Amino acid sequence: MVLNMFEVRVEAEFAAAHFLADYHGKCERLHGHNYRVLAHARGTELDAGGMLVDFGVLKKALRDVCSSLDHSNLNDMEAFSNNPSAERIARYVFKRLRELLPGCPLAAVDVYETPTSRARYSE
């Protein structure tokens, strides 16, 4: 049986440097990206106002998380174990959003390092 689903998406950006310690190639050198981050919420139920999630609430939380990463060297953050891959960044953002928005039907977080390279984390 297929359920009718609603999905909303917001996005934010941040710029940061990183390197991949266990990578053999140019990405093992310090470099930077202008990351684009998308947060997706998904569910079957709307609130009394007819919304799955208030865009403004979700966008503010995502911007707050991205702001904490902006203009930093991600390798300096313990959360990434010195290997801040796009996959680990996506997981980090997802988990932080869950902490900031308990009960939000968060479905996935996408992190784009470039317009054509994306990592997604979902639970």
Describe what you observe in this structure.
With 123 residues, this protein is α+β, with helices and mostly antiparallel strands. The chain has a single domain, classed as 2-Layer Sandwich (Tetrahydropterin Synthase, Chain A), CATH 3.30.479. Helix content is 24%, strand content 33%. Strands 1-2-3-4 form a 4-stranded antiparallel sheet. Strand 3 and strand 4 form a beta hairpin. Helix 1 packs across helix 2. The model has no long low-confidence stretch (mean pLDDT 94).
> Rg to the nearest angstrom?
16 Å
How would you describe the shape? elongated
Q: How many domains, in number, for the residues?
A: 1
Kindly provide the name of the CATH class: Alpha Beta
Low-confidence stretches: none
> Which architecture does the CATH hierarchy give at level 2?
2-Layer Sandwich
Largest sheet: 4 strands, antiparallel
What is the spatial order of strands in the main beta sheet?
Answer: 1-2-3-4
**Strand residue percentage:** 25-35%
Task: Give, in order, the helices and strands.
Answer: EEHHEE
Estimate percent helicity: 10-25%
Q: So, the CATH homologous superfamily?
A: 6-pyruvoyl tetrahydropterin synthase/QueD
Briefly note the CATH topology name: Tetrahydropterin Synthase, Chain A
CA-CA gap between termini: 21 Å
